[in-house]
Description:
alpha/beta; ten-stranded mixed beta sheet
Amino acid sequence: xxxxxxxNITGEGREALLEKFSSMGLPNKKSEAYRYFDVExxxxxxxxxxxYVPQNIAEAxxxxxxxxxxxxxxxxxxxxxxxxxxIDMDHxxxxxxxxxxxxxxxxxxxxxxxxxxxxxxxxxxxDALINYRIVLHNQANRHATLYEDFSCEDIExxxxxxxxxxxxxxxxxxxxxxxxxxxxxxxxxxxxHKVNVANNANAVLKSFxxxxxxxxxxxxxxxxxxxxVDAGHLLYLNENSKRGTVSQIVHKGERSTSKQEAKNILDxxxxxxxxxxIRVDHSAKYTKAEQNSKAIxxxxxxxMAAKPQLEIYIDELEASHGATTGxxxxxxxxxxxxxxxxxxxxxxxxVIAFANTLIETVKDARHQERIKAAFEKVFYFGVVRTQHPTxx
Length: 392
């Protein structure tokens, strides 16, 4: 199956989705959201289609989704399959609509009370298109955290197309921490999300994307009055890969606030992506918006596509954005080496110090240590492949 066959999909209540998708078309190298990502190479392949038959969900400490099917969940968690009722008909990503067309029934998760939940995505099929959508709700006046991780078997040439429709209730907080290590050629991923943040609600979205492979996350966030989003993205690449984040944060309500920070470390012939827009509508007076991207290039062929953007329709606001790209400080490296520290360890110390401001925003010490351990694993893998910052 190629994604171009979506034009043949029909079904009750899906005409508007199909019309929207058809008007936007399949993304290509000229598409605004995919201009830095080789999406055509992924979409033009033939993939095996899978049969998505819900099965009995076993009791376990965490949610596990295997090839798009829920297999385990904690006792008492409300998780079931249901059509998504709140699809954003103004999303910037055509594959957001493709995902809903391919997955008319979503996995719905309702977070009750103040809770912490772990979710593991596992992929086991080669040469397959794995597509699924997740609808996530929390409760008003509550504070919940979702830790998200990914694993795969020895597969190859698979495309994962998944995403969230998150609805963060008023006066609540939802923290989502994603830790995603990938290896080249196992699978590629396009993750297209929509996040609604209600009045006085708080969204904390942290992503830690490590390793290689082809992967892009596309995020649209709508902020109501007095709503806040804190988005942080750490990208560490050390294989022949293209990965990153494309986002739109839309301020719709008065006195809404946003903070978005990207830290990118590119350690091979790779492309990192941070293409992010903050839009302030006419209705969003007294907005505060902050956006920043910093990148360190550790290889002469590394390339960072950084494009922070502001689109503002009012005068009564505070807003800033910026991007910097550079290399590790040679004086700092020399100082550490002069104290008997090896070049590799000195470089790691400086890179970790650069990344730690994001890693340490993960409040749970256990998950913070998991991220640091995953970072060290891919860092030393990169050392084996590239012993010198110039690739020599």
